[in-house]
Structures
1.
Amino acid sequence: MKEHITIIGAGNLTMSIIEAIKRSRAKLTINVVDIDKKKSSQLKKFGVKLNTTYDDEISKSKFILLIVKPKDYVQALKSIDPCVNSQTIILSFIAGISVNQIEKLLTADVNIVRCMTNLAISARQSYMFYFMKKGSKKVVDKINKFLLTFSVTKKCSEENHINKLTALYGSGPAYYIFFNSIIKKSFQQMGFNEKESDNYTHSLMLDSSELLGISESQYLLEAIASKGGTTEAALSQLKKDRVDLSVRRAVQQAYKKSKKILSE
Ligand SMILES: NC(=O)c1ccc[n+]([C@@H]2O[C@H](COP(=O)([O-])OP(=O)(O)OC[C@H]3O[C@@H](n4cnc5c(N)ncnc54)[C@H](OP(=O)(O)O)[C@@H]3O)[C@@H](O)[C@H]2O)c1
């Protein structure tokens, strides 16, 4: 029999996860619940129907993936509360909302798991980090079996690791894409048109990440930056401008936010 899962929230991350599940060919029945029926058009391409009400379909699910924004988590949990029991496993992808905060809103003693991944999971087997306070071997095996079908799964020993991974791995693609847009603007400032700048940046970023897949970064930096050359001039300016410090401070801001997401 096909495993039945429910996903609450039909937004960006849900679409990426459904794409990953579909790519893996895992045999699952996916029930998606979102308060906005306009989201159904995006789900159609995956052959998944949208449910706009919290009904019995949820009670059939062993796994409930909670993928709403932090500001909506209380309402979402209140809505699923009547449909869950001690056999249910809730996988929460919500940044900054702790296992304790989720537990407090549920009547039954549900298995709560905090997960973190990023949007790139749609295209490849990305990491899926997870943490749970308690859980029998049987429950942990079930979680691993489910997540391993579409991700590289890693269990965290402390909940705070999820906050750190939110800042680095969850937000991570945005840092890379931000750098990508700086390079694209540099092409344009040098006189290349929009299309050329797009193409050259795209090729540069993809080819560089392939290089990182086959060689170690320090070796690559030395191979590209010859003494007295152009790359060395650029890298020494980046070091002088303390770009490393800026990036570390940015990541610290994300980490701080991931520990106190709703307080501001
Ligand atoms: N996006 C990422 O790269 C990423 C990466 C890692 C983790 N996350 C985490 O994943 C969560 C979702 O992010 P996202 O970018 O996918 O957000 P999103 O695009 O805003 O998707 C959330 C969806 O949930 C719907 N929703 C709100 N309240 C609901 C309720 N009570 N019941 C059912 N559906 C409800 C929203 O509808 P409305 O639009 O009408 O409000 C929206 O369609 C966040 O907590 C975030 O921290 C995101």
2.
Amino acid sequence: MNFTSDNITGASEKVLAAIIASNRGKATPYGKDEATLRAHAALDAFFGRKVTAFLLTTGTAANALACAAICPPWGTLLTHQESHVMEDECGAPEFFMAGAKITGLPGIGGKISPHTLRAYLEGDAQGANRPPVRGLSLSNGTEFGQVYTPGEVADLCALAHAHGVKVHMDGARFSNALVSLGCSPAALTWQAGVDVLSLGGTKNGCLMAEAVIFFDDALAQDFIFRRKRGGQTLSKARLIGAQFEAFLDQDHWRDLASHANAMAKRLADGLTSIPGLRLGWPCVMNEVFLILPAEGIDKLRAHGALFYEWSGHSLAPDHALQPGEAIIRLVTSFETRAEEVEALLTAARGMNAR
Ligand SMILES: Cc1ncc(COP(=O)(O)O)c(C=O)c1O
């Protein structure tokens, strides 16, 4: 019953087979191999247009380097105040942006509203002493398992662009967001105005494969140097290329994410049918945020359940934690089995027993 994260898994069978196959024989290094070239073609097909893609190994590197491509050292990058970029990357975005300031904006469920963004951009004093806002980084899905719709992304991008601000999307769970929304990759990114995307593979069936996707080619100009400088230009790049090829082939990503999302839905439905339990935010992808009496945490752990306690700062006011309540995050993956979900539900039902 391990619901700590979706990166506790290995690779899917299909991705692993592709890695093993790519291990055979010789291949040109540094991304000029056949598997990487095929992965690039598959990424073009995935987005329905030619994109400029760079493959790398971690989401942190993808985010940090992508943010550096849109925000200069003297600029400000706006993001949600509890985003991964803001809180969980050990200053990598600041490091690669070489001094740029990151400012966190509030928002329910990890989402920045157009109202909040407009108020910040219009109220931002100009002048040579202030780092001007040059970048906006949005997570889709968010750190609280929520999704921005294509329309919401388009509204934020339009506002950002009107103020000379480029938009990055952290898509560590992009597959799960797509499945949740039922829209195309194009609709959620370039058609809505996103300039650069961190496309995650690792949490959804790859062993370690992420991509930075540029929809604005001008921004990609120096990225080949940024990636190398970031230590993310792999000589045996074929191993990442092979992962993306398998991940995208016949919508394998969709099958994996659909399963993860369905398991979360099952978990959420079961948990909310238990008196005294409620969700912090709606379950729309592969994460369930459960509000429970704080003593329930130890009881669930005593049954062998693994999970993290989570922050309740981004709860809507009418969902705020009451005294004695806590919030936990339960994440499902492409490998989560229905029996694990049932075991957690049984443990949760037993929590109320004295
Ligand atoms: C929203 C989000 N972005 C980015 C990442 C990147 O993670 P990593 O650098 O561990 O691959 C994660 C991983 O937890 C994440 O949850």
3.
Amino acid sequence: MNPYSIGVDLGGTNLRAAAVDASGNMLAKVASATLPQANGDTVVAEIGRAIEALRAQVSGKDLAGVGVGVPGTVEREKGILIGAVNLPQLDGYPVRDAIARRIETHVILENDANAAALGEKWIGAGRDVDDLVLLTLGTGVGGGIISGGRVLQGYAGMAAELGHITVSPNGNPCGCGNNGCLEKHASAMAVSVMARLVGLGADLSSEDVYHLAAGGDDKARLVFRTAGEALGVALANLINIFNFPLYLLSGGLLPAWEFFAPAMMAEVTRRSFIFRNAPTRIVRAQLGNEAGQFGAAYLPFRPY
Ligand SMILES: [Zn+2]
């Protein structure tokens, strides 16, 4: 028996999938675009095609199962996805069973940020610890918590919505109904919005703002300092709650690390006595945009 698994990372714009062996070696990978208007049947057919393409490339091994990271909350018993903001057409769609019927194998769904955290735990920056938090700083802020080597799900599967931690009580309004959510103050999108508010320009990406900061622009640097402070507030709270050894950051904001990390670390140091008294690392994640597919691939190998 020489098993491998397939990990699928289903995003709002991209579908990535990889065949991975039980030691975490990638055997093959495929990627395609997720059609924004596609209905559930079409998306599942695309996932099926990706899986078949990978199976055709791997020989002499047995498929242990398929893990799928999805952009929303997973209702585990039913194998459905709810609250899929970036793929609303999949809301309530029986994703797990539809895939399993197509390819006749064991299929496990997991929230995409949880899958990314699991990937980092398995073969990435978290492989030497059993407890970590991952924050993905992209269009929004995703969160995954690994406790005792396992994904912390919460009783309804909705734990680790870390992008919606309040970092500023009367801060920017969020689609979730709250004001001052972390993702409204420290995501790539938040950086674009802040750049507009300080008069840098109307349509700048976080990367544009980064280049301005690198060129010495004070307003651009202020934007990243502000994002860093918000991250520091959130991390101080997480550290005080969990006392974990490791907090990982990934996503589109990472290139600007040098501009947001000093403010983030100052804020964490000031606000968390746990951080000041227990060795705690806040560092970059290692697997980049492949974390989700590695974590999804790990799901069929989990010992529980
Ligand atoms: Zn929110």
